[in-house]
UniProtKB/TrEMBL annotation:
Keywords: Membrane, Repeat, Transmembrane, Transmembrane helix, Transport. The lineage of its organism: Eukaryota, Metazoa, Chordata, Craniata, Vertebrata. Solcar repeats lie at residues 11-99. GO terms for cellular component: membrane. Belongs to the mitochondrial carrier (TC 2.A.29) family. The keyword Cell inner membrane does not apply. InterPro entries: MCP_dom_sf, MCP_transmembrane. SUPFAM superfamilies: Mitochondrial carrier (SSF103506). Mitochondrial S-adenosyl-L-methionine/S-adenosyl-L-homocysteine antiporter. Mediates the exchange of cytosolic S-adenosyl-L-methionine, the predominant methyl-group donor for macromolecule methylation processes, for mitochondrial S-adenosylhomocysteine(SAH), a by-product of methylation reactions. This is Mitochondrial S-adenosylmethionine carrier protein. It catalyses: S-adenosyl-L-homocysteine(out) + S-adenosyl-L-methionine(in) = S-adenosyl-L-homocysteine(in) + S-adenosyl-L-methionine(out). It is found in: Membrane.
C-alpha cells in the first residue's frame, strides 16, 4: 500500500479504501476517452459510420469536432462515481478479509 513497502506491514481497511479510491479515479480519468467512444458507438444510428464500431475513427471524429474537452466529456462525475466504488469495495473487501482471518484464528499476514 501507499504507507509502507514492508511485507509484514498490516494495512488497515481505511487505507485499502483510500488506495481503491485513488486507483479507481485514476483509471476512470485515463479511460474516459474510450468510454466516450463506446457511448457514441452505442448511440449511433444503425448504418452510420460511427455504428460500425471503429473506436479509433470515433475518437478521431470527436477530436476533430470537439477537441480534448470532447474526449474527456464527463470525466469528473465518472471519476467521482468510480472512486466511490473503489473506496467502498476495496475497504469492504479488506474489512471482510480481516474479520474472516480473525474468525479462523489466524493473524493477518
Amino acid at each position: 500500500a501507499l504507507w509502507s513497502w514492508r511485507q509484514d506491514h498490516v494495512v488497515d481497511c481505511w487505507q485499502s479504501a483510500v488506495c481503491g479510491a485513488f486507483a479507481g479515479g485514476f483509471a476512470a480519468a485515463v479511460t474516459t476517452p474510450l468510454d466516450v467512444a463506446k457511448t457514441r458507438i452505442m448511440l449511433a444510428k444503425a448504418g452510420s459510420s460511427t455504428a460500425s464500431g471503429n473506436v479509433l475513427s470515433t475518437l478521431h471524429g470527436v477530436w476533430r469536432t470537439q477537441g480534448l474537452s470532447g474526449l474527456f466529456a464527463g470525466v469528473f462525475p465518472r471519476m467521482a462515481a468510480i472512486s466511490l466504488g473503489g473506496f467502498i469495495f476495496l475497504g469492504a473487501y479488506e474489512q471482510t478479509r480481516s474479520l474472516l482471518l480473525l474468525e479462523l484464528g489466524r493473524e493477518r499476514p
